Amino acid sequence: MNPTQSPLERDVAAMIVSTLNLETVAPEQIDPGAPLFGTGLGLDSIDALELALEISKRYGFQLRSDDEDNRRIFASLTNLTAHIEKNRVK
Amino acid sequence: MHEPGNSTSDVLLWRSGAPLTRREFLHDAAGIAARLPPGSHLLNLCEQRESFLLTFAASLLARRTQLMPSARGEIALRELRSAYPDNLSVTDDDVRRWRTAPYGGDRTADLAGNLSPDPGDTVLVGFTSGTTGRAQPHAKRWRALSRNAALDAAAIRRALTVSEDVPVSIVGTVPPHHMYGIEFTVLLPLFGNMSLHGERPLFPADVAEVLAEPAPPRVLVSTPLHLRALADSSVEFPGIDLIVSATAPLDPALARVIESRLRAPLLEIFGSTETGAFASRRTVRGQEWRLYGGVTLETAADSTRVSAEWFDGPQRLQDVLEQRGPGGFVLLGRDADLVEVAGKRASLADIARRICAVNGVVDAVAFQPEAAASGVASRVAAVVVSRGASARQIAEQLAASVDAAFLPRPLVLVDRIPRDPVGKISRAQLLELTRGRAAGD
């Protein structure tokens, strides 16, 4: 268990790893402040699409890429988790 | 949104503000053409649809040959620059800068005609990744591209049951820089009396929002992967008149789900970088493809030759097709080495070769497991024998030379690759190795 991850961050990290089949990464290894896309975990737009679907199923809201904060939202596990926390309806 | 007083047939590009008319577009493209530094090749690296389209049109006006690499990684672009030393890269920033500088010439009336080069001119060079890792160039003459565009436009209008003079709006989720994207999101707006939405929406909610903006009839140009995601989402979509899918064969059951969720007929397109689009089908009606008019096939056990009078010569595809009467065929097998993910293509042999090039790796196989449940081909997986390098180190090194869409997931380390006595690799065993790994995590 990674003490730097909050409980919701742990859930979101586990969701990222299971949804995207990132078997070389353990959820607790994801640095909450490190970038998820490009460098860092190396995720791309297909992954973003898969994550958006999973987020809408688990947390009940739709991601949008025209959101001005989009870059910030996907910048790190911490930011994505904060966005989920703010918008979740379940 | 479109202005009530403005005829929709004048619109070329839908945007969040006022739409860009054909006249404004041609004026801006001519301004860019006049500012291009000298040279004969051009590398269109624009990410925005609007600047990509402007650069494409400027290149036609300036009679340049555009290079369309299938991958845009650092290494791929370096290889391209060394093969075409006089090429000029054009980016979104260049277009923005060139557009804001005033351009005095306004010969828009002549420009529409000037947009079409001579039939024999090489307008662009597409690339496919060969098994050796060297990108194979495919020169496209205007004769072929213009026929492709006319045939695609006719296929869409036939499916929509509208005549040639009816303007059609396109919303695309695919990038513009491979043959499917060029035909359906670049050539159709420029030459098919169609308009394009300037956005490339990603998430289902984005797609729904963008689709609501252009004037109907609206065509959604997408891929099986993206359409499956849209169908899976709980988003409500506005009126779509036709869905176009290409890049990977679509399962008929999934096509039915997509048609009922998006409430629109789905037209599937068959083609390749070598030939462009050359057949279509209504997937829900059956497996059989209908050839575009003027295209003929010669089928063999392991490949197919496709001919049309606008090709430079017959084109050989690794796909195994079986003819069904005049003008029809079914697909028996795709080239086992080529994989397509989200409109990008790569060679499995090339990916395996690049894995083997990583320090510490002694053997590797890349393959694409089918995702039977979803009916959509999945990502590339790899089984690797390594003496020292961890799966994570291999993945990190690969990222420098392999497009993110093809980075193997899962990448499983094994003691040896299961080859039979003649050196063949059992697909079933590969699947078992990767499945066992995923379950064991």
Describe the structure.
The complex is a heterodimer of chains A (90) and B (441). By secondary structure, chain A is mainly α. Chain A has four helices and no strands. Chain A is globular and about 30 Å long. The mean pLDDT of chain A is 83. In chain B, helix 1 (22-35) packs across helix 2 (49-61) and helix 6 (142-160) packs across helix 7 (179-191). With 441 residues, chain B is α/β, with parallel strands linked by helices. Residues 1-6 of chain B have low confidence and may be disordered. Chain B contains 13 helices and 26 strands. In chain B, a hairpin with a 6-residue loop joins strand 13 (276-282) and strand 14. The N and C termini of chain B lie far apart (50 Å). Chain B is globular and about 70 Å long. Helix content of chain B is 33%, strand content 26%. The A-B interface holds A 20-25, 42-46, 48-50, 52-53, 56, 62-66 and B 199, 201-206, 209, 225-226, 229, 232-235, 341-342, 379, 390-392, 395, 399, 404-405, 407, 409-412, 437-438, 441.
Shape label of chain B: globular
What is the quaternary state of this protein? heterodimer
Task: Name the average pLDDT of chain A.
Answer: 83
Span between N and C termini of chain B? 50 Å
| CATH second-level architecture of chain A | Orthogonal Bundle
- What is the residue-averaged pLDDT of chain B? 86
User: Would you tell me which CATH topology of chain A applies?
Assistant: Non-ribosomal Peptide Synthetase Peptidyl Carrier Protein, Chain A
Strand content of chain B: 25-35%
Q: What's the helix-strand series of chain A?
A: HHHH
3D shape of chain A: globular
CATH-level-4 superfamily name of chain A: ACP-like
SS elements, strand count of chain B:
26
**Low-pLDDT residue intervals, each spanning 5 or more residues of chain A:** none
Largest interface: A-B, 22 and 33 residues
Cα-based radius of gyration of chain B, to the nearest Å: 22 Å
Question: How many individual helices of chain B?
Answer: 13
| Main sheet overview of chain A | none
Terminal CA distance of chain A? 25 Å
